Amino acid sequence: MELVLITALGVGMATIFGAVIGFTFKKVSHRFSDIVLSFAAGIMLAASVIGLVLPSIELGGGGIKGLSLTIVGIFAGAICLNLMDKLIPHLHRLAGVDNESHNNANLNKVLLFVLAIAIHNLPEGIAAGVGFGNDDPGQAMLIASGIALQNIPEGMVIIAPMLAAGISPKKTLLCAIGTGLVEIIGTLIGYLAVNVASVILPVALSFAGGTMLYVVSDEMLSETHAHGSERGATYSMLVGFCVMLVLDVLLG
């Protein structure tokens, strides 16, 4: 349990650490943002496949049975996050990056912005917690490391839009801290849920993997290919993916 608590703090603090770095680079170009986010996407893609989806098939008994449980879990996770997305507007819309009226942001917009970030961080935290139910500390640390690594650039790139929306630096920092806390809570929820009912572990792993794959495709890759930096973003994603492969070998 101590390792889980330390990991939860590490995952959450990574977002906050990235936010602090973001204050140093208040003016972030689209190209830099796209490359950083693509690197994070590559990390998440590898972490979800290596640390969640493949173990889910194995723990489900392998063969058709294990594969079926994993596929069901992946789609369940993606559909769940899709429903959440319909309730909460996308981050770039709330940030008002391309809208000149964004300087008139009110309190409701700030609260929605924080909630939108949090709702995307919660399944990542749950994924980190679920990994510890696998009796394989190496795999669990791989997932947590991947999420923490991608949280740093994610924390960096959310600062500029919030400041541009008229949010004070103090409130911006508090919002970033809040999103990090949500991820810590998610990690503990994932760990406790799997340990209470370990029989659901295969589906829980693939469910968490499905949420991460959904975030990569719907939020990250689409955003990084919207500003003319597709080539650099693609190579950056490959670098992130390979970084996770290296970590998998070293931790394995």
Furnish the topology, listing elements before pairings:
Blueprint: H1 2-24, H2 30-59, H3 63-87, H4 91-95, H5 107-130, H6 137-164, H7 169-196, H8 201-224, H9 230-251
Helix pairs in contact: 1-6, 1-7, 2-3, 2-6, 2-8, 2-9, 3-8, 5-6, 5-7, 5-8, 6-7, 6-9
Give a quick set of tags describing it:
single chain, 9 helices, mainly alpha, globular, 252 residues
Structure description:
The chain has 252 residues and is mainly α. The protein has one domain. The chain is built from nine helices and no strands. The chain has helices at 2-24, 30-59, 63-87, 91-95, 107-130, 137-164, 169-196, 201-224, 230-251.
Quick synopsis:
With 252 residues, the chain is mainly alpha-helical. The protein has helices spanning 2-24, 30-59, 63-87, 91-95, 107-130, 137-164, 169-196, 201-224, 230-251.
- Intertermini distance: 21 Å
Number of helices: 9
Shape: globular
* Spatial extent as radius of gyration: 18 Å
Q: What order do the SSEs take from the amino end to the carboxyl end, as H and E?
A: HHHHHHHHH
Number of domains: 1
How does the major sheet shape up? none
Question: Can you give the mean pLDDT?
Answer: 76
Q: Got a strand count?
A: 0
Low-confidence stretches: 94-107
Tell me the structural class: mainly alpha
Helix content: over 70%
Q: β content, as a range?
A: under 5%
